[in-house]
């Protein structure tokens, strides 16, 4: 399927101009959901499979920059506040065919150029943002209807390379991060 085939266009708009197109649905032949579906079998993502989380994907056509870097992907719980929330829900539901619990947006250019491993990693990363909330004792939370209470999780580590270069793994967060990389290296070299 060519790029143009999956482009959604409104007939009233100039079809030769692609600059207005911000997002598009993923190419069915190269859909991140295919990779994500496999990753949901991993224990770290099992809560999403068990709770039947509705996860939908969109591709961002024009790169978005944050702090001078291209945002490769974002995971959100698609809700807006205020007067237009109903309109937003309606538009999203029309676009996706349902109201998702999580909406993951990936940079199209990155996705198209990425290797299969890079694609898997970005899907895995975005799924790590999607969690079931826990109560203060660490038990998974459910609604009164027995459905999971979904939430978003931030990255485990937020630090500058320069700090680690100068001060080493100075807190638990960074120590865990470094330990994970070391354990992974050891695993690879044993195989
Ligand atoms: Zn992230």
Model description:
This protein has helices at 32-39, 46-50, 85-96, 108-113, 116-128, 161-167, 172-190, and strands at 23-24, 55-60, 65-66, 69-70, 73-76, 102-107, 130-132, 150-152. It has 191 residues and is an alpha+beta fold. The protein has 2 domains: 4-154, no CATH class; 156-191, no CATH class. The chain has a 4-stranded mixed beta sheet. Strand 3 (65-66) and strand 4 form a beta hairpin. The longest helix is centred in the last third of the chain and has 19 residues, at 172-190. The chain starts with 22 loop residues before the first strand and ends with a helix. The model is unreliable at 1-16 (pLDDT under 50). The protein binds zinc ion. Zinc ion (ZN) binds next to loops.
């Amino acid at each position: 399927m060519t790029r143009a085939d999956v482009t959604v266009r409104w007939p009233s708009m100039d079809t030769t101009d692609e600059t207005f197109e911000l997002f598009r649905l993923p190419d069915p032949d190269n859909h991140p959901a295919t990779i994500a579906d496999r990753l949901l079998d991993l224990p770290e993502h099992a809560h999403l499979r068990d709770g039947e989380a509705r996860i939908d994907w969109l591709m961002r056509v024009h790169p978005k920059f944050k702090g001078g870097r291209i945002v490769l992907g974002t995971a959100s719980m698609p809700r807006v506040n205020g007067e237009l929330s109903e309109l937003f829900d309606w538009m999203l539901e029309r676009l996706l065919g349902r109201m998702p619990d999580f909406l993951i947006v990936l940079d199209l250019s990155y996705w198209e150029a990425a290797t299969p491993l890079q694609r898997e990693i970005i899907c895995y990363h975005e799924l790590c943002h999607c969690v079931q909330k826990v109560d203060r004792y660490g038990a998974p939370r459910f609604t009164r209807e027995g459905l999971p209470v979904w939430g978003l999780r931030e990255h485990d580590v937020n630090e500058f390379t320069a700090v680690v270069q100068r001060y080493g793994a100075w807190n638990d967060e960074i120590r865990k991060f470094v330990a994970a990389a070391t354990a992974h290296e050891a695993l690879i070299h044993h195989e």
